[in-house]
Amino acid sequence: MASNDLAIRFTETKYATRSEVSKDLKMSLIDNIWSNILSYRSAFNQYLTLRSVDRNSLLVCFCPTVANSVNELEGKILRVLREYMRMSPLTGDAKHFEDAWMIKSLEYVAAKYDLDVTEPYLRSLVQGDVREISSSHRVLLNYMNALAFIKSKFSSPIDIDFFAELYAKAIGEAELTSFYRTENDKNAFNRVLIDPVYTSAPANLIETLMSELFAFIQNGKTSGLLKGIATYYYINYVRPFPSYNDEVALLMTKAVFAHTGMSELGLLLPLESLLNDKQDVLAKITLEVQKTNDLTYFVNFMVPYIDEKCDRILDYIANRSSEEMKSDYYRLEEAPAPIVQPEPKAVVQPEATLLVEPEKAVYVTEVAPVKQEEPAKVIEKPEVRVLEKEEPREVMVEKIAVSYIPPVLDEKQAARLEEHLLELDPSLKRNEAKFYARHCTLGKKYTIAQCKKSLGCAYETARTTMEHLVELGYYRKEMVKNKHVYSPIPRD
Predict the structure, then answer these.
(1) Could you tell me if 265 and 228 are in contact, meaning their C-beta atoms sit under 8 angstroms apart?
(2) Chain segment 126-156, per-residue pLDDT in tens
(3) For the ranges 91-95, 147-151, 343-347, the one whose mean pLDDT is highest
(4) Start-to-end Cα distance in the chain
(5) Which SS3 state, helix, strand or coil, does residue 58 take?
(6) What is the DSSP string of 400-469?
(7) What CA–CA distances, in Å, run from 201 to 54, 58, 197, 236?
(8) Which of 46, 81, 160, 355 has the most CB atoms around it within 10 Å of its CB?
């Protein structure tokens, strides 16, 4: 078999390690074959700004197979996010969904610590109904508080201050008395001089390595999905704290997902199963990444793992939707019967009573002179015309710039419009589409302050958002009383 065919086979069909190639070919001397495989992969390598303890750059090989699997997962995440955004907060669907997956995450955390908890107990904890909590269950409350902290800081950069506050929440401390660990891991593997395998980074390198991670999260050119996966590997590799490194690695991964496009969905993916699941496989893959600095092995493990979690969420949404449709169907079948029958009977009875009392017509004629004295009053009060003019005028004003959306948008419709805009215009950012979908009424004028309040971001970010929407033709910028205002432009 040609060497190039072997390179494609052990890269595209299966992204194999050197030992796997040797085992599969039943050969011990594979130096030339392995060199050809590495040469083929090098054309697709993308080097990250993350470095190992030995100061070697980590890389990801975006060969066609790996690139396709990443793209497919990103598409599935977008689909799950779209389904989540369609849930109306008014009906309680969104809250029920969030609670269900928060409970699932806490179940995995409880399993790591062998805590005997029930689903109703966790539901009470999530909904804030637990008044007293035992010390052994405090880890669950701390983890939930850490997730709530991430949710409250979507507009904050992920830097050392964010990391410190997140760690404080995870360990249940109001104020940190210490931060990074100051002692080295005493594991014998860390003392090997030739080709060492680190169970954690040396204490004197932690601050440097973590600074590189924050820079990678904020400025790296790769996708949010890859940033999150790399973050999970890197924190487990460095292990910057004396304890709770596993939990902090997951929390930071979720924070990166949430900050780079997944929003609240990034917090709801039940990745906490990694605290107990596939530990042997993870250890083997982590060792391979250390030896080769090739993060692709870890990416190839995490992508199908996250994909399976997305499938579970989609199944949950589909099952819940079918249950709602069934309940609506039976409700509609039962409702019409009692409503249709009583009304005709009520209409017939008043006519019979009117026919029995003809004498009352005499009294009506006596009141006639009174009716003649009040014509002027009746004529003066037709100023109801003002009301008739106001109603249509209000209806005419409330038009939406996007013609297919009804004039009054509830949150569900606004979320749909937001997704439609993102699919229609790739140059739009998520926050820009979110603001415009809820602020596109013709005749109204919006301000940067409104954008800042709506998105919960900094003033400069809000100003940049509005200016970009002007450039794209969504708003017209005007000056009113020394203040910039933005008016929606009609769009088909």
Answers:
(1) no
(2) 998 888 888 899 999 999 999 999 999 888 8
(3) 147-151
(4) 59
(5) strand
(6) BSBTTS-SS--HHHHHHHHHHHHHH-TT--HHHHHHHHHS-BTT--B-HHHHHHHHT--HHHHHHHHHHH
(7) 10, 15, 10, 10
(8) 81
